[in-house]
Write a structure and sequence with these properties.
The complex is a heterodimer of chains A (214) and B (544). Chain A is an alpha/beta fold and 214 residues long. Chain A contains 6 helices and 11 strands. In chain A, helix 5 links the parallel strand 8 and strand 9. In chain A, helix 4 runs parallel beside helix 5. Chain A is globular. The mean pLDDT of chain A is 91. With 544 residues, chain B is mostly helical. The longest helix of chain B has 33 residues. The N terminus and C terminus of chain B are likely disordered. Helix content of chain B is 76%, strand content 0%. Chain B is globular. Chain B has 22 helices and no strands. Chains A and B meet through helix 1 and strand 7 of A and helix 7 and helix 8 of B.
Chain lengths: 214, 544
């Protein structure tokens, strides 16, 4: 379970996250819905450990991972993150991009997990290609596979389907929903699109001006 | 059926007055920066055709010259490599710095980078003179100390270039790595490989600077190839022979430059040098933190030795004022040259910056022409300038200021072009389209739209041109007319007689002038970006 208690994050004079308290139970599939500039991405980055809160605490499974004087690095939080841009490393092939996330496993386990993910995402045919040799839709599938690879407890999605056409978006939405359910992870899905939120999540939290709207 | 238009009408139809002006200015820019090469090439050809020259000279390297070439390349490579390694360690500390601190640190590095290497030579030789009083065995001359002082002199520039190389990497890619693996692994497997081309270019850039600088090695008794070229010219008076002697070194520097070309372009195309910051501090293992601490110690030592050395060696305020009064003629001459270089270079460099943006072959040729002068040793640039301009019709150029100005334009205008190229990338072209729609005249567009948008780049380029011109020695030494000398020439001549108080006073003056140029640039930039009508940016990246 992830618990946020009275979390505040400011950038200069701008308060991106304003005294937010939130509980994300295990296996919950939650969408955070809000307009652009409302602070949703900052909230996700705070949970991932990519930003430090100015006030408040974030804990995971009873362990404080972020507070103004306590910090656990992102790689130790057992999370997966799918960025708005696929953020695939251009110097690595598709397979290496995914393997990087499970570098700590033994070689046979790595290969087995890789093969299973490539198969599930329908991207086995591009495993040896570089990111600049694949399409936008394929890149999102690789990013999803990479996020799922280490079997994270929580998957964080930061508007992962931006700039995709409707059929492709529907296809990927279904894939995300199926994959997250199959792996049993919790999910926090940030979007400004109501359709995406209702399709992928069981619970929708509305967010505006850095605050959770009740 | 349409009647074909006459040829001259086609030309008139194609080129607007603005385009004609652009082509003219561009032509003058490329002529001025390549004229030393043209002069050297024509002279070499003439001497070869007359049979006055043995063309096998560059290929028949004597063992002494071969050793000299190898040692010079080794010195430059060692300085560039250690500069980049230390720079990388230093910038790895800046990831978490706030935007304000980052701006201050990077601009301070820029100002320190402009301090001439011979000033570092003076301060370190003063320190060594003091240390040998206690430890007589410490070497005060030779390759080792030359390496150390060159390394110290180039460290701020190496740090700045390392930062730009890191900033050229999309920080989302690094953050994606941080989610999955520890920071050290992300650093070595994601950040370093992705910034490698730009770091390679930074290495090449430092290598070129070190290869063409002979001021530091000569002051510490290490004979380098660049100095030997100058010595050959002084001894034989044959420019063609000096060009042939320089050829092996130029082949090396041109190869390095071509190898780094794409990386230099990457460095210059980095979209926002200040955006590449993390929201949370990276966690590195102890050995890496230790290395970072050593790198911090080295840069602190550099700054400490620089200022304490200059102030202590100068001694008293009266020594400082006496040395300034003694050199007021050279100081005025140097400042006038710097002003002339800025006035000539900036408009020409602006046109060149546009040309650097061209895609395909045209842009590639422009990049090669802009980078080529950087591969020529300074003394050879001076010789080439004499060969190009020393014709009966142009002899009026020789007395006074024009030759030292032109030689600095030839050496440094390419830097201004690259800076303005970077500035142009920050400007959305649609702003110029909007200006074309709404403004009443071209003059109005220039004064109210274009010039204010170019201003930050012009300002930074002016500051860098001033600093580089004030520090220029190798080429000015060759072209300075009799009876005239720059401040740098005076200091360099005095330095051979040891680190006296007057010389230190002059070096302190150059350092103050350089840092003042940097401070003025920073203050004006601050005013431009925080002036009336501009909302302050939030201190952080956009949240959505």
């Amino acid at each position: 379970m992830i618990v946020l208690e009275d979390v505040v994050k400011t950038f200069g004079n701008h308060t991106a996250v304003d005294h937010v308290s939130l509980e994300i139970p295990d296996h919950a599939h939650i969408a955070i819905l809000g307009p652009s500039g409302s602070g949703k991405t900052t909230l996700l980055r705070l949970i991932a450990g990519l930003e430090m809160p100015d006030e408040g605490t974030i804990s995971m499974n009873g362990r404080t991972v972020s507070s103004p004087d306590m910090f656990v690095s992102p790689s130790e939080r057992r999370i997966g993150f799918v960025f708005q841009s696929a953020a695939l490393w251009p110097h690595m092939t598709v397979a290496k991009n995914i393997l990087f996330a499970i570098d700590s496993l033994l070689e046979p386990e790595q290969q087995e997990r890789l093969a299973s993910l490539l198969d599930r995402m329908g991207i086995s045919h591009i495993r040896d290609r570089f990111p600049d040799q694949i399409s936008g839709g394929e890149a999102r599938r690789v990013a999803l596979a990479r996020a799922l690879a280490p079997r994270p407890e929580t998957l964080l999605f930061d508007e992962p389907l931006t700039n995709l056409d409707r059929p492709l978006r529907d296809d990927l939405l279904n894939l995300i929903a199926e994959s997250v359910r199959a792996d049993g992870s919790s999910m926090l899905y940030v979007t400004h699109d109501e359709y995406e939120a209702t399709t992928v999540a069981d619970t929708i939290i509305r967010f505006d001006r850095g605050r959770v709207l009740r | 059926m349409a009647t074909p238009r006459p040829f001259f009408l086609k030309i008139r139809g194609r080129l607007s007055p603005e385009q004609c002006m652009y082509a003219l200015v561009l032509g003058v820019f490329f002529l001025l920066i390549t004229c030393p090469l043209i002069g050297l090439g024509v002279d070499l050809l003439y001497a070869a055709l007359k049979g006055n020259l043995d063309l096998s000279t560059p290929f028949l390297l004597s063992s002494r010259r071969l050793g000299l070439l190898a040692a010079s390349i080794g010195l430059a490579a060692a300085v560039a490599f250690s500069g980049i390694v230390t720079g990388v360690l230093l910038v790895s500390l800046l990831w978490r710095a706030s935007r304000k601190i980052l701006v201050v640190v990077l601009l301070a590095m820029l100002a320190f980078a402009a301090i001439p290497p011979y000033i570092h030579a003076l301060t370190w030789s003063s320190l060594l003179g003091y240390v040998t009083g206690f430890l007589p065995g410490v070497p005060v001359t030779g390759w080792g100390i030359s390496y150390w002082v060159e390394f110290m002199a180039l460290l701020p520039l190496a740090t700045l270039l390392s930062w730009i190389a890191f900033a050229s990497v999309d920080f989302h890619l690094v953050e994606a790595g941080r989610v999955f693996r520890p920071d050290m692994e992300t650093f070595f497997k994601i950040l370093l490989p992705l910034s490698a081309p730009a770091l390679g270019a930074a290495f090449g850039f430092l290598f070129l600077i070190c290869c063409s600088d002979y001021s530091v090695p000569s002051l510490f008794g290490a004979d380098v190839y660049a100095l030997d070229i100058f010595a050959q010219f002084s001894a034989t008076g044959s420019s063609a022979l000096a060009s042939l002697y320089a050829l092996p070194l130029m082949v090396v520097t041109i190869i390095v430059m071509i190898a780094c070309r794409s990386g230099i372009r990457t460095l210059a195309q980095t979209p926002d040098w200040l955006s590449a910051r993390f929201g949370t501090a990276p966690r590195f293992p102890r050995f890496f933190v230790g290395l970072q601490a050593i790198a911090c110690g080295i840069i602190a030592l550099q700054i400490l030795i620089l200022f304490s050395g200059l102030i202590l060696t100068t001694g008293t305020l009266s020594t400082f004022t006496r040395s300034v009064a003694m050199a007021h003629g050279e100081l005025t001459y140097s400042l006038l040259i710097a002003a002339g270089v800025i006035l000539i270079s900036l408009p020409l460099a602006l046109a060149a910056a546009y040309e650097l943006r061209q895609p395909g072959l045209r842009g590639a040729v422009a990049w090669i022409l802009v980078l080529l002068p950087l591969a020529i040793p300074a003394s050879l640039t001076g010789i080439g300038m004499i060969l190009f301009w020393n014709t009966p019709g142009l002899s009026m150029l020789y007395p006074g200021l024009l030759m030292p100005i032109l030689v600095s334009v030839a050496r440094f205008a390419p830097f201004a072009a690259i800076i303005l190229f970077v500035q142009l990338r920050f400007i959305d072209p649609i702003l110029f389209d909007a200006a074309a729609v709404f403004s009443r005249s071209r003059l109005e567009t220039w004064l109210q739209i274009r010039f204010p948008l170019y201003a930050p780049g012009l300002l930074v380029a002016a500051g860098i041109l001033a600093a580089l011109t004030l520090a220029e020695l190798g080429a000015t030494l060759v072209v300075a007319p009799p009876g005239h000398g720059t401040l740098t020439m005076r200091i360099y001549n005095y330095l051979h007689y040891g680190a006296a108080g007057e010389v230190a006073g002059l070096c302190l003056l150059i350092t103050i002038l350089t840092l003042m140029a940097g401070a003025c640039t920073i203050a004006t930039l601050y005013w431009l970006y925080r002036g009336p009508g501009r909302a302050p940016e939030p201190d952080g990246r956009k949240s959505e």
